[in-house]
From TrEMBL:
Cofactor(s) recorded in Swiss-Prot or TrEMBL: heme
InterPro entries, A to Z: Cyt_P450, Cyt_P450_E_CYP52_fungi, Cyt_P450_E_grp-I, Cyt_P450_sf
Protein source organism: Talaromyces marneffei PM1
PANTHER family (alphabetical): P450, PUTATIVE (EUROFUNG)-RELATED (PTHR24287:SF1)
Top-level division of the source organism's lineage: Eukaryota
Keywords attached to this entry: Heme, Iron, Metal-binding, Monooxygenase, Oxidoreductase
Keyword Oxidoreductase: yes
Protein name, entry field: Cytochrome P450
Record-stated family: Belongs to the cytochrome P450 family.
Entry GO MF terms: heme binding; iron ion binding; monooxygenase activity; oxidoreductase activity, acting on paired donors, with incorporation or reduction of molecular oxygen
Annotated Pfam families: p450 (PF00067)
Amino acid sequence: QRGPLGDLYWLLGGPRFRRACRICHEFVDSAVRKALGCSAENLTAQSEEAYTFVDALIQESKDPKFLRSQCLNILLAGRDTTACCLTWTLRLLLQHPQAISKLRREIKDALGVGPEAPEPTIAQLKKLSYLSNVIKEVLRLYPSVPVNARAAVR
């Protein structure tokens, strides 16, 4: 389903809207084709550092239309939900100074601080368990998307 307009969503935007959609689809389609072009050996040989969202999706389905839809959903819908999550995280951390102290200590111990500290890797970020728990608790208390209306096609 596409919200209250259903299958008539295309009536709302006009030619400019449809052109913008086509440009977005072409951009994402090229990335999907490139990702699908990687052989299974290359995908499994990649380090954890190079693992991407598209790689995870390809393990679920190799349908280009499905992959495009999921990528567009993350790219276009992710901006506001991320901002909402960060806003609530900062507000709650400011209300709980002991949580800020614990979080700062974890980050300092794991990654270092200051201009000489290297950029953190994905593997290092995954080891920040308290940070992960803080984010999960914020999303539990204040979900960015309280209702995700999807309909099963089968």
